[in-house]
Design goal:
Chain lengths: ~140, ~140
């Protein structure tokens, strides 16, 4: 059994400060899209629940701990990842404080970005689209 | 790159006849869950779009053609497939007629099942749960 499709999770974490929505981004340490900004996320481990994987990657890359996440949807368009066919399950979390960030692991940096300033920044993969879809949940 | 997680799609096709909702089920020709009833679905091919895969599997197993589907969500709980860690992206489609079915490929039979009679029938995998979640879209 099996196919050569990989599975990742990506997290859209929103916070609201002074009536401004911000989203949590990391700067990628590695290829593909090295140095570009992206959503925190990564590969699901075999035997790992999807939401657990999303929380783990978020913690590893940003230091942020969230209690619960809701699923946005799966993004699976062929070509969205130059490494090969990769399906990402996107999760959403809302937090009330602009938490301090501790970038680590696959992230060389992390920041809170105002949503309205996002168009200035081309994100890695299809993460612009993922954020657009997640915003419909706000 | 890569992990040993497999990706499938499953389709929840509802039709409404005389104020009764029915869901399309197939009887599995092969293990696991051989002979049990299940949602039409199967493995996504490398390079294939998720919705395209869902329509292809639906056609192969039941003869039913649908124009569009909407995504329900991904189901990825470890243990949901005895063959190994398998993540299924569920899709939903509503059709207006109880179309004639032509079971083929991995399906030895197919039928329209009244939703309210579903509890009498233990379905393969976590397909009961998938149908429950999809019903929230009705």
């Amino acid at each position: 059994m099996g196919n050569k499709i990989s599975v990742t999770v990506d997290s859209v974490v929103f916070c609201k400060v002074n009536n401004t929505f911000k989203v949590l981004l990391i700067q990628r340490k590695n290829e593909p899209f090295k140095d570009m900004w992206a959503l925190p996320g990564g590969f699901v481990e075999v035997g790992e629940d999807l939401e657990t994987a999303a929380k783990r990657e978020l913690l590893e890359e940003t230091g942020v701990v969230v209690q619960s996440m809701e699923q946005v949807q799966a993004f699976g368009k062929p070509g969205r990842d130059p490494r090969g066919h990769t399906i990402s399950i996107a999760f959403l979390s809302r937090i009330f404080n602009e938490e301090e960030l501790e970038p680590s692991d696959d992230a060389k940096d992390a920041k809170w970005m105002e949503i309205e300033k996002l168009p200035d920044e081309k994100l890695a993969f299809d993460h612009d689209e993922i954020i657009n879809v997640a915003q419909q949940f706000l």
